[in-house]
Amino acid sequence: MLLTRLTLLLSAVLAVRAFVVNEGTTCTVYPESLTHFGKPVDDTPSILHAFELCGKNGSVILTEGAFHIDQVMNTTGLQNCDVELHGEMIWSTNVPYWLSHSYSVTYANLSTAWFFGGENVTFKGFGKGRFNGNGQVWYDENRNNSNQPGRPIAFTVLNAKNLWMDGVTWSQAQFWHSFISHSQNVTMSNIYMSSLSNSTWFTVNTDGTDMWNSKDISYYNWTVTGGDDCIAIKGNSTNVHAKNITCIHTHGMPVGSVGQLPGFPDYVENVLYEDVTLINSTNGAWVKAWQGQNKAVTTNGGSGGGGGGWAKNITWRNFHLQNVGTPISVTECVYGHDPSVCDTSEYQLSNLTWENITGTAHFDIIASIHCGAKVPCPGLKFIDVNIETWNTSLGKPSLPPLYLCANIMDQNSTGIPCNGFAPYNMPNVLYADHPDLQTTKTLNIVVPEAQRDNCLFPTPGLDGCYAGDPN
Ligand SMILES: *[C@@H]1O[C@H](CO)[C@@H](O)[C@H](O)[C@H]1NC(C)=O
Ligand SMILES: *[C@@H]1O[C@H](CO)[C@@H](O)[C@H](O)[C@H]1NC(C)=O
Ligand SMILES: *[C@@H]1O[C@H](CO)[C@@H](O)[C@H](O)[C@H]1NC(C)=O
Ligand SMILES: *[C@@H]1O[C@H](CO)[C@@H](O)[C@H](O)[C@H]1NC(C)=O
Ligand SMILES: *[C@@H]1O[C@H](CO)[C@@H](O)[C@H](O)[C@H]1NC(C)=O
Ligand SMILES: *[C@@H]1O[C@H](CO)[C@@H](O)[C@H](O)[C@H]1NC(C)=O
Ligand SMILES: *[C@@H]1O[C@H](CO)[C@@H](O)[C@H](O)[C@H]1NC(C)=O
Ligand SMILES: *[C@@H]1O[C@H](CO)[C@@H](O)[C@H](O)[C@H]1NC(C)=O
Ligand SMILES: *[C@@H]1O[C@H](CO)[C@@H](O)[C@H](O)[C@H]1NC(C)=O
Ligand SMILES: *[C@@H]1O[C@H](CO)[C@@H](O)[C@H](O)[C@H]1NC(C)=O
Ligand SMILES: *[C@@H]1O[C@H](CO)[C@@H](O)[C@H](O)[C@H]1NC(C)=O
Ligand SMILES: *[C@@H]1O[C@H](CO)[C@@H](O)[C@H](O)[C@H]1NC(C)=O
User: Fold this and answer.
1) Residue ranges per domain, the chain?
2) Which residues line ligand 5 (CB under 6 A)?
3) Which ranges of the sequence are coiled-coil (predicted)?
4) Per CATH, which fold does 19-210 belong to?
């Protein structure tokens, strides 16, 4: 009886969608290529069908083998659904299709190839499930541009609650590997990501992950090789924990960018990054905020600055750095760099802690911390920060390590050995041969005369320390 029903159901389903096998609440998806003599066929309809049938109180199992993804997918609104990926999902190289069909994620006019979300959802890859974005076509087509409209984020968690993703590998992501937006209680563990270009064009914007408007988010056991931020915490993020993360060739662990859009303040609170290894990365433990005045920019969403907000209680702990461009930094003029507005930020930072940070800096700059003149930072702390220059580590001559500071409240009790003034327009990336930190160099930062003042050890209230346009 049961068998008959099953067989009927099976044949009915098989007739419509060749390769979803539906048994009770479980949908098993097989690659369409199996019925097409190995020829790649779009698996998107089968996968979407499986989520329709089994996305509520069910399981969706993608078997071993190669799944070809030729279309955007929106699998949100799942409930009590367990997803397994045993094989590889391969996104098509049809660049014009993706440029015109990717879903908008709202943030900075970016878009995605896949929205995934719901309540009480697991996504398990068992260390073998893989997303292959076929990124090389994107790196070549993008030609080093930043945030190309329509270039899709590989995987976006949207409107999720109680979601656990484990054991998934990304290779050659189209753009950011992943994004968590408007979600709560999401954990992503045992994640491997790697995107490298084999041409003269860089991978640009292949962030490991970003989060926005979300809370209670954890990242455990990640290894990311990419060409941009490793784990970036954007606006309206609360209670974030990243632990045991290795980042190679990235832009490190930033809070930001924040403060970009007027009318949409960015609040960030309770972030802990710990047990992090950063190798050959441009930046380390940092905050990137926008200036206070909105200005047109060619990248990052059309214009930026004046968004305001605050970030507080952020900790970077147990970091080991190997050859990092700017190990520790705070900028309040990210991406803008128009000197007439650079020191106008009203983005308030407080209670930032850098603890047990060791290893090597590529240049002689260990830290560059420029808090906005209008919003000096209270509660900054350095505890056991011990970084040497790359040259020193190689036994070569080196300039003395620089700790550049500006507008830090109670500076003498922060533990930061300030010995220079941090310019408001410090470049985010300090070397020209982006993204490889291959040559050994010393860099002598020239601080403009106008900014020198006696700001090294500002008194509370900052009298005599202000060094820019007072408006
Ligand atoms: C995605 O699906 C959800 C339903 O789960 C729907 O509300 C939403 O509008 C869809 N988004 C897009 C971009 O199609
Ligand atoms: C999700 O799980 C929680 C805890 O088990 C339960 O209270 C809640 O009803 C579940 N949500 C849905 C949509 O079933
Ligand atoms: C958070 O999600 C996990 C699944 O990843 C679940 O086990 C846990 O109960 C959730 N926590 C709360 C407070 O709902
Ligand atoms: C670069 O990667 C692409 C896509 O994987 C491949 O088709 C191409 O042959 C590779 N080129 C080189 C020079 O390895
Ligand atoms: C940290 O994560 C890596 C995978 O990225 C794993 O191999 C390693 O065992 C983890 N270490 C600890 C202490 O959990
Ligand atoms: C991290 O990796 C270690 C070593 O493989 C493992 O014991 C631990 O359970 C992992 N943590 C999580 C959250 O999966
Ligand atoms: C952050 O949340 C606040 C409400 O708490 C909202 O006013 C603001 O627009 C949000 N910012 C962004 C960038 O979404
Ligand atoms: C600061 O954030 C940590 C998590 O990183 C949290 O445990 C702690 O309670 C927060 N402190 C305050 C005062 O909110
Ligand atoms: C400092 O961080 C390193 C990792 O970089 C870790 O091995 C060490 O145990 C940490 N020290 C303390 C006192 O936690
Ligand atoms: C900063 O931390 C101190 C001491 O933990 C606390 O009293 C203060 O409220 C915090 N301030 C902010 C803005 O988080
Ligand atoms: C901070 O330390 C410097 C150098 O030791 C000293 O000149 C200055 O007076 C101190 N400032 C305060 C406010 O204690
Ligand atoms: C880091 O860069 C150095 C110098 O180019 C290189 O020898 C090393 O292999 C790189 N390490 C990793 C893990 O990529």
Assistant:
1) 19-210, 229-461
2) 221-223, 244, 246
3) none
4) Pectate Lyase C-like (2.160.20)
One-character DSSP codes across 103-131: EE-SGGG-EESEEEEEEEEEEEEEEEEEE
CA of 366 to the centre of ligand 11 (A): 21
Higher pLDDT, 288 or 300: 288
Cα 162 to ligand 2 centre (Å) = 9
CA distance 273 to 240: 8
User: How far does residue 156's CA lie from ligand 1's centre (Å)?
Assistant: 13
Same CATH topology for 19-210 and 229-461? Answer: yes
pLDDT band of 302, cuts 50, 70, 90: low
> For residue 270, which of 224, 219, 216 has the smallest C-alpha distance?
216
Going by alpha carbons, the residue nearest to atom 3 of ligand 12 is 438
Which ligand 3 atom is the nearest neighbour of the CA of 185? 1
Q: Determine contact, residues 228/238, Cβ cutoff 8 Å.
A: no
Helix (H, G, I), strand (E, B) or coil at 369: strand
Task: Give the C-alpha distances (Å, rounded to integers) separating 284 from 257, 266, 354.
Answer: 14, 21, 11
- Summarize pLDDT for 252-293 with one digit per residue, the tens: 999 999 999 999 999 999 999 999 999 988 899 999 999 999
For the record, the structure tokens of 188 come out as 């992503």
Task: Please work out whether the CB of residue 136 comes within 6 Å of at least one atom of ligand 4.
Answer: yes
Q: How far apart are CA 423 and CA 343, in angstroms?
A: 9
Residue with tokens 């994107």: 138
CA-to-CA separations, 416 to 185, 368, 419, 451, in angstroms, rounded: 35, 11, 9, 20
> Which one of 170, 191, 219, 221 would you pick to mutate in the ligand 5 pocket, going by the greatest count of ligand atoms within 8 A of its CB?
221
> How many Cβ atoms sit within 10 Å of the Cβ of residue 305?
29
**Confidence at residue 264, expressed as pLDDT on a 0 to 100 scale:** 95
Q: Note the pLDDT of residue 425.
A: 82
The answer to whether residue 394 scores a pLDDT higher than 70 is: yes
Spot the catalytic one: 82, 207, 228, 343.
Answer: 228
Q: Does domain 229-461 have CATH number 1.10.10.10?
A: no
* Residue 221 alpha carbon, nearest atom of ligand 5: 2
Q: Which residue has the tokens 């699998």?
A: 75
- Give the mean pLDDT of 455-460: 35
Q: Look up 228 and say whether it is catalytic.
A: yes
Instruction: State the ligand closest to the CA atom of 184.
Output: 3
Ligand 6 binding pocket includes 190 (Cβ within 6 Å): yes
Q: How far is CA 459 from each of CA 64, 410, 416, 451, rounded to the nearest angstrom?
A: 64, 7, 15, 16
CB 168 within 8 A of CB 198: no
Contacts of 100 (CB under 8 A, 6+ apart): 150
